[in-house]
Amino acid sequence: MQISNPTDMSEQDQLTEEQEIYKENIIDHYKNPHNKCKLKNSTHTEKGINPMCGDHIVIYLHVTNDTITDVSFEGDGCAISQASISLLTDAIKGKKVTDALKLTESDIYELLGIPISHTRRKCALLSLTTLKKALE
Fold it and tell me: Which one of 10, 44, 54, 68 is least enclosed by Cβ atoms within 10 Å?
């Protein structure tokens, strides 16, 4: 049995230059996450867990007059889950709650900027599901 080199990708599977930049951005958000701390004056808090791989987060929101005035998170997990929550916290700060509730899976995939395999979708979407639970 011959084992193929994992770096041997078909032309169809190779990332574009733009996707490579997003991949580096994901790694940067994983290593240097934005808004990762416990928000002391939060008005909304929610825990999220992905039991499939052990990712876990806690999102803290401060909402004033239907606007997310501050947001942070704590947690651990894979690069995709941690980058997703880091990117999402950047994206929702200053937004109306109604706009945050309208965010979709596609919005999260767009923030991440690279193809997400079926097995990694729960990792990518943990941030969104936790945010929506916190705001409901």
Answer: 10
The number of angstroms, rounded, from the C-alpha of 98 to the middle of its chain's C-alpha atoms is 19
Helices 105-112, 121-135: inter-axial angle, 10-degree rounding: 120
Judge residue 32's burial from the number of C-beta atoms within 10 Å of its C-beta, 0-12 exposed, 13-18 middle, 19 or more buried.
exposed
Asked whether 51 and 15 are in contact (CB, 8 A), the reply is no
User: CA angle 16-92-42, nearest 5°?
Assistant: 140
In CATH, what number does 36-135 get?
3.90.1010.10
Strand ordering across the sheet containing 55-64: 44-50, 55-64, 67-76
Residue 111 · residue 91 · CB < 8 Å: yes
For the record, the structure tokens of 107 come out as 């919005």
